[in-house]
Design a protein that fits this description.
The complex is a heterodimer of chains A (330) and B (282). Chain A has 330 residues and is mainly α. Helices cover 67% and strands 5% of the residues of chain A. Chain A contains eleven helices and four strands. By secondary structure, chain B is α/β, with parallel strands linked by helices. Chain B folds into two domains: 210 residues, P-loop containing nucleotide triphosphate hydrolases (Rossmann fold, 3-Layer(aba) Sandwich); 41 residues, no CATH class. In chain B, helix 4 runs parallel beside helix 6. The longest helix of chain B has 17 residues. Classes of the chains: A mainly alpha (330), B alpha/beta (282). At the A-B interface, helix 1, helix 5 and helix 6 of A face helix 3 of B.
């Protein structure tokens, strides 16, 4: 049995090489690393400008973050960018003036910042999470996001395109009469993709976090990467075998990217708040990946049990789908 | 070698494909399974090769129930040629054969190059990718794949499809050679010439039922009207007469100057198929 499995592995490796799977992964690695090192780490959000209209000069000494304006009109003009915060002290009580950015959370942060600046309470109030400087925080954050994207979208596509080739050649059916257990056909692809994804994870993490930091987070990152890789590979396998042609598969891929991955990124990365996102399984995989990069033990036993259950269920479904494909007519 | 008793199979509730098939195939026999598209040939072959499950009735191969047989040992004993040449098109003929052979024990494998040589495969193409092969060449590689494990039971689905006449003759010789070695052959085909020339017995399948099962000779003989057609010349003119076979015992029973040809009016296997099933093999 193991001899047959080794032959399947060799064949799948050849197919992966000929389908330029590794070249694609290598290209992604270079692209992501260049973006992280040359662009993302230098990005920083500009602090919210605060404008003060104080006709009675009730606050003669104000924080360095505040810019004074001469009239209410000037205050409104300055705050027209939906980013700045205005403070009007012409009345008895200070009035905050800001145009909504469209995101409730962001507006809330702007108001808090405006009040803090006015009261000169801008130091020492933040809770310290971890010991990352701004650059390392950015590196961890974006590496987690790129890895999640690579494993959930690019890896998924790689395996599916490889399987479509075998399906078109009809050779899947030949494996139905070979003296090797049919589940090995699925298993060999999973193992190869898993090893390739773990290697990609280690390289991406090492290059972008630096070896000492990468070594510290790699055990938990590899675990999350392994879970995501197996789930996505099995979903890709199922879709490639079930869907009749690559056109339909491309459409499904688009649906997956738009309706499944995008909400997770939006909910995880922006101020958008969706209560239902906690029911989205990919959201938990995404947050677990990010937590792993920040060494936060955010996931517990039920998460791992559910992942294990999902992998076993998907594997059984993949084997069943494969049996059906083997029994199909020419 | 194969014993099938009251075999039924349905694809879903209202789609019964096989209606109580009963037949057996002896060791070293070439058994032809003939029927038009949709008659249940492929379904039967898939049940016999363990590809599909869920049948009713008894199916025994190598004297064991198929239900106990879907093991590595069973798959090591069978060889299957599919209707279409399923091969890795990015690999060469040799790489394909080495890959598929690697699943069988070493002592059981045949030499890939020798086998391709026997199948008159063009040597220049041995290491070229299958994507550059003609249909006939692909069929040769597929046949080699089915034979590479020295199977005791060989399932052939339309073996001569896609071959030129010389290729078809070669394949028939190879199948004969396999029979002489003691291999049992289960041949599924539309091709009446293949069935007539190769098969020890044939079964006619129609709408999931076996409507006739016998040797090709018996089937033809049973349904022959024992007539003879004679073309001859007499007094400067050409004529044709049909007479009963027994009439010729005492010589030609009419006056003639010269006999041009004498043909027996034996029906073909295709005639028999149409007679039994009411339709042709398309």
């Amino acid at each position: 049995m193991w001899n047959g499995f080794a032959e399947l592995l060799k064949k799948d490796l050849k197919l992966m090489i000929s389908s330029k799977f590794f070249l694609l992964a290598f290209g992604s690695l270079i692209l992501y690393s260049c973006y992280i090192n040359f662009v993302y780490v230098k990005l920083d959000q500009e602090i919210y400008p605060v404008y003060l209209y104080d006709p009675q000069n009730t606050k003669p000494a104000v924080s360095e973050y505040i810019t004074r304006v001469e009239s209410r009109e000037a205050l409104e003009t300055a705050c027209a960018d939906q980013y700045s915060v205005g403070i009007d002290l012409s009345a008895e009580q200070p009035e905050l003036y800001l145009l909504s950015s469209g995101l409730e959370t962001t507006d809330h942060y702007r108001m808090l910042w405006g009040e803090a600046v006015l009261d000169e309470k801008v130091d020492g109030q933040a809770e310290v999470v971890g010991c990352n400087n701004k650059e390392m925080k950015n590196r961890r954050e974006i590496t987690a996001e790129f890895l999640f994207f690579e494993l959930s979208a690019v890896g998924f596509l790689g395996l599916a395109s490889m399987l479509f080739k075998e399906k078109q050649m009809g050779v899947i059916r030949v494996h139905g009469i070979l003296p090797v257990h049919r589940s090995m056909f699925v298993f060999s692809k999973l193992i190869l993709l898993l090893v390739s994804d773990l290697l990609f994870t280690a390289l991406l993490t090492g290059i972008n976090l630096g070896v000492p930091d990468a070594v510290r987070v790699l055990p938990s990152v590899l675990l999350q990467a392994g879970i995501l890789s197996l789930i996505m590979a099995l979903v890709g396998f199922l879709c490639a075998v079930r869907l009749p042609d690559f056109k339909q598969f491309s459409l499904f891929y688009l649906v997956l990217a738009v309706f499944i991955t995008t909400p997770v990124f939006l909910a995880g990365q922006t101020g958008i708040e969706w209560d239902w996102i906690i029911y989205h399984p990919m959201y938990h995989l995404f947050t677990a990946m990010k937590s792993a990069y920040f060494s936060i033990p955010a996931v517990d036993a039920p998460y791992y049990l559910l992942c294990l259950g999902a992998i076993i269920l998907l594997f059984l479904l993949a084997c069943q789908t494969l049996n059906r494909e083997m029994a199909k007519e020419g | 070698m194969i014993d099938v008793e009251d075999l039924t199979f349905s694809y879903g509730k209202d789609k019964q494909a096989l209606h109580g098939l009963t037949f057996s195939v002896n060791d070293g026999e070439i058994f032809g399974f003939l029927g038009p598209n949709g008659s249940g040939k492929s379904t039967t072959q898939k049940i016999l090769t363990g590809i599909i499950k869920g049948h009713n009735g008894i199916v025994r191969l190598f004297e064991k129930s198929i239900l106990e047989l879907r093991t590595q040992a069973f798959f090591q004993k069978i060889g299957v040629l599919f209707e279409f040449p399923y091969l890795y098109t990015n690999l060469s003929a040799l790489d394909n054969l080495h890959y598929f052979a690697s699943f069988y024990p070493k002592e059981q494998r045949r030499d890939a190059e020798e086998l391709l040589d026997e199948l008159e495969f063009k040597k220049d193409f041995l290491k070229k990718p299958v994507s550059s092969y003609s249909k006939g060449m692909r069929q040769r590689v597929s046949m080699a794949r089915a034979l590479i494990s020295n199977p005791r039971l060989l399932f052939l689905d339309e073996p001569t499809s896609g071959l030129d006449p010389a290729g078809a003759v070669l394949f028939r010789k190879i199948i004969e050679k396999e029979r002489k070695k003691g291999t049992t052959v289960f041949l599924t085909t539309h091709n009446m010439l293949d069935a007539d020339l190769l098969c020890d017995r044939v079964a006619f399948l129609s709408n999931g039922k076996i409507v006739a099962l016998d040797t090709p000779e018996n089937l033809k003989e049973k349904n022959s009207d024992h007539r003879i057609v004679i073309d001859y010349l007499y007094q400067g003119g050409r004529s044709r007469k049909t007479i009963e076979a027994h009439e010729i015992k005492a010589g030609i029973p009419f006056a003639y100057d010269e006999i041009i040809s004498i043909h027996s009016q034996e029906p073909t296997l295709e005639d028999m198929f149409i007679q039994y099933t009411g339709r042709g093999l398309t």
